[in-house]
Amino acid sequence: MSPFDQSVLIRKLTLIEERLELLRPFAALSLAEYRADIVRKKGAEKLYQEMLNAAIDANFDILVQSGRAAPADAFASFVDLASL
Fold it and tell me: What whole-number distance in Å separates Cα of residue 26 and Cα of residue 12?
């Protein structure tokens, strides 16, 4: 990968790390507490979605930069990256 591509990948991985850190307090909640607070629940879902999107983007970048074809879909991006 060129330095530019590495910086893009680092930015995506940093986003994942930051969102994961924001999700840590949710681990202390019981399932009932989590379900009872719709604002927390929606916040957690949004953070998780941002992490997942960044991971899928990173997968595509790594696969394409390694000379592979772009995966067919998000699920395939994880399978293809695992095989790489």
Answer: 22
What is the secondary structure of 11-79 as a DSSP string?
HHHHHHHHHHHHHGGGGGS-HHHHHH-HHHHHHHHHHHHHHHHHHHHHHHHHHHHTTPPPPSSHHHHHH
Whether the pTM exceeds 0.90: the reply is no
For residues 82 and 84, what is the distance between their CA atoms, to the nearest angstrom? 5
Predicted local distance difference test score (pLDDT) of residue 6 = 87
What average pLDDT does the segment 11-37 reach? 96
d(CA 30, CA 45): 16
Q: At what angle do helices 3-23 and 38-65 cross, to 10 degrees?
A: 160
